[in-house]
Amino acid sequence: MVALVVVLAGGLLLSVAAAVTVGPADLSLGTVWLVITDHLGLTSADVPLLRDHIVWELRLPRVLGAAVVGAGLAASGAVMQTVTRNPLADPYLLGVSSGASLGAVAVLVLGFGAGAAALTGGAFAGALAAFAVVVAAAGRRAVLRPTRVVLAGVAVAQLCAALTSFVIIWTADPHATHSITFWLSGSLARADWAALGWATPVLAAVFAVILWFARALNAFAFGEEAAAALGVDVGRVRWLLLVTTALLTAVLVAISGAIGFVGLMLPHAARWFTGPDHRRLLPVVVLSGAIFLIWVDTAARTLFEPRELPVGVLTALLGVPAFVLLLRRGDGNA
Amino acid sequence: MLDIRDVSWSVPAARLLDRVTCSAPRGSLVGLLGPNGSGKTTLLRVVAGLIAPGSGTVTVAGDDVAGLSRAAAARRMALLAQYAETDLDLTALDVVLLGRTPHRRSRWSDSDTDRAAATDALERVDMSGYAHRKWQTLSGGERQRVQLARALAQEPQLLLLDEPTNHLDIGHQLQLLHLVRRSGVTALAALHDLNLAAMFCDLVVVLLHGRVVASGPPVGVLTSALLADVYAVDADVAVHDGRPVITYRAPAA
Fold it and tell me: Which of residues 32-91 of A touch B (CB under 8 A)?
């Protein structure tokens, strides 16, 4: 188990370095290494300014953004599936992604500006607002039942989607149309150091919280009543985990839009290797989510150069067949 | 060991428990009887501390359950439901180790104590050879025995059983209640099968509409008059080896 985590952690570091070298401008691993150590003040290398810029300003933030988003979505998905006892749960179940689209589009058409910061802020605000409405609609905190939360999430998502369509059609603004495509299919093109600067600490904090409750999550195996009878404060644990993962998802959606498949399927794939024990599952799912999204995003930006595929399209195109293969193999073993 | 005193519990439309008083001496198996909707499951949930009584008190080994944290309650009492279902790919040993949740010392690993308690619990239900079997491959009777092992791994002072034999064939019903008796742990068990209750229970408590209508040793309580009153059935009760044996008659056409 420890060996698996070490291998995956090494794989993640290698993936970051290797993915940065891939792209229209040819870069070697050596150059990437020099640029990174130079910026960290470890060496003073003489790398040409253009290459330095490509590595430090363009590719590295994007690759790290993919890692953070992939890790966060996979972890949130694993927790949501356990807490709602629904194998179809994903991080967007509580209306967070539709809220983000609405928020971003609203920022555009209400004229708060079209800058990246304004859009990200709008998306984040929209995601949080949608989640707040879901919680308010689902009931008081003591009776936050999973089925009601899921139903409220679906309803709020539909409402946000309808409002977004309405705004787009009403204003007929081409920027808004473009923006909604970005938020619906997901892209890491906007990942930069500023976004990483607040997403990474949020990811770290939320991951620490869910790891802390790993054993309590295991107790949900036979349902919430069984978990309560095993000494878990079900109401408090469920509330805390739903809120923290929704917060994390809101932060991620504001950066990348809604990238499908990762949060739904990776937890299932990881369970095949670790079993359902969250003490093993959570570290593995986080690392494999990061590695997975790094490579899919690298493929999305380079396969059809100079055009870029929406990464959400590619996560589904690559991930679904892989998932079906795993599913069939799992059947054969049982 | 277990003392239930004047416990009432209501939902807005109905009073589901009405001043229930009963007790279970140390080491006894007490049967909780009564028709569907008489309040058996509600009473078990109150005793387990899963819901707080509207009034009255429940004490287990001298501690008021209302004053215990969830984890402290789970160290004193273990609950065995009538049916346990999961989609997860767990082994029998994984399931039994869940019983160690309220005892955890470390968040990250199972201690030697945890493993020893789980192995011992599997032995006590005659399932030692099944530790690495997958839950999904176990029969209904084997699943209930694994769940009983999980409950025993909690090292409870009181077992709460909610119709634990409902989905089992007669052989497994007898075996499960035998294992509960053999464990020596004080137990309160909601049961539907009155002959099983008569065979295994030291005492029975009969509920109707949330009230205790009779309690005591089975032979004094399970009479044809009581069965007619509580269950509206026509039955003969014979006594065999000091235990009542009930023969039902089909309702008159």
Answer: 87
What is the torsion angle, in degrees rounded to the nearest 10, for the CA atoms of residue B233, residue B236, residue B237 and residue B240? Answer: -140
CB A23 within 8 A of CB A302: yes
Render pLDDT for A44-89 as a digit per residue (tens, 0 to 9).
777 888 888 898 989 999 999 999 999 999 999 999 899 888 888 8
Rounded Cα–Cα distance for residues A81 and A41 (Å): 43
Q: Are A219 and A227 in contact (CB under 8 A)?
A: yes
Q: Which of A222, A225, A231 sits opposite B71 (nearest CB)?
A: A231
Instruction: Determine the number of helices (DSSP H) and then strands (DSSP E) in chain A.
Output: 15, 0
* Orientation of helix A60-83 relative to helix A234-256, angle to 10°: 150
Q: ipTM for the complex?
A: 0.90
CB B148 within 8 A of CB B80: yes
- A233 inside 8 A of chain B by CB: yes
Query: Given B74, B87, B89, which is nearest A230 (Cβ)?
Result: B74
Distances (CA, A) of A106 to A79, A130, A156, A169, B87: 30, 14, 16, 13, 41
What single-letter amino acid sits at A107?
Answer: V
User: What phi and psi, each to the nearest 5 degrees, are found at residue A331?
Assistant: -65, -45
Count CB-CB contacts under 10 A for residue A109: 16
| pLDDT, tens digit (0-9, with 9 covering 90-100), for B23-37 | 999 999 999 999 999
**Torsions phi, psi of B166, nearest 5?**
-55, -40
